[in-house]
Amino acid sequence: MRLSSALLAIPLLSAVNALHFYFESNEKRCFMEELPSDTIVEGHYKAFIWDEPANLWKMDPEIGIHVAVEELSSGHVVVNTRGPPEGRFTFTSHEPGDHNICLHSNITGGWLTNQHIKLYLDINVGSARPDSQADNTHVTTLSSKIRELNTKVADIQREQRYMREVEATFRDASESTNSRAVWWSLLQIAVLIGAAIWQMRYLKVYFEDKKLR
Predict the structure, then answer these.
(1) Residue 5: which pLDDT band, with cuts at 50, 70 and 90?
(2) Average pLDDT for residues 33-46, to the nearest whole number?
(3) What CATH topology corresponds to 16-129?
(4) pLDDT confidence bin for 138, thresholds 50/70/90
(5) Is the distance from CB of 84 to CB of 64 less than 8 angstroms?
(6) pLDDT tens-digit profile of 47-95?
(7) What residues does each domain of the chain span?
(8) Are 103 and 84 in contact (CB under 8 A)?
């Protein structure tokens, strides 16, 4: 049977892989995908059948697509389902290594009744399954960092309050010093004025006595 064995391994290197291929209704197409453990894989397929009288590809709701995924290292079948001509499948790899992804149609018949099928396939290799323990550790680490930041903020606020108190004390001392300097200047001016008045009166009396003599 043509292409009855697995197709040459096609490594799906990018995160999202899109391809289309042709096969007969009695054939099976398989793809090899190397995956790490606990990795989510999503696939989307769309099948068209060749309509000879209309000379075009069309989607026939009677077509069913069978999808099977097997872990080659353990022989465990993680997906074994049949869906409509357009559908999705999802699985999570349990063991690291090669995974065999096979697709074929539900149309059967003899050599003369084979149908030509075109199938579009998108495979999205997602990230590893979330690790709850790692997430909890991450949350705990974030909580500790937040507590440290709160402590630092509180220290900064205390330091700012202390600086405001120091500034208030310095301002009060400066105002007090300026006030004393002003009063001292006024006192000096008053003394000078008093001394000048006393000297003027003394000189006036001195000259008047001198005239009388």
Answers:
(1) very low
(2) 88
(3) Jelly Rolls (2.60.120)
(4) low
(5) yes
(6) 999 988 889 999 888 888 999 999 998 889 999 999 899 999 999 888 8
(7) 16-129
(8) no
Closest CA relative to residue 126, chosen from 46, 14, 31: 14
Q: Beta-strand (E) ranges in the chain?
A: 16-24, 28-35, 39-51, 56-58, 65-71, 76-83, 86-92, 97-105, 116-128
Q: List the structure tokens of 71.
A: 């872990």
Classify 76 as helix, strand or coil: strand
pTM of model > 0.90:
no
C-beta of residue 86 within 8 angstroms of C-beta of residue 59: yes
Q: How far is CA 53 from the centre of its chain?
A: 53
Owner of token pair 């084979």: 114
- Concatenating the DSSP letter of every residue in 89-146 gives EEEE-SSSEEEEEEEEES----GGG--EEEEEEEEEEEEEPP-HHHHHHHHHHHHHHH
User: Is the CA virtual torsion 57, 58, 64, 65 positive or negative?
Assistant: positive
From the number of C-beta atoms within 10 Å of its C-beta (0-12, 13-18, 19+), residue 107 rates as: middle
Task: Label residue 106 exposed, middle or buried (CB < 10 Å: 0-12, 13-18, 19+).
Answer: exposed
Residue 46 makes CB contacts below 8 A (sequence gap 6+) with: 59, 85, 86, 119, 120
Decide: 78 and 70 in contact? Cβ < 8 Å. Answer: yes
Which residues have a Cβ under 8 Å from the Cβ of 183 and sit 6 or more positions away? none
Report the Cα–Cα distance between both ends of the chain, in Å, rounded.
160
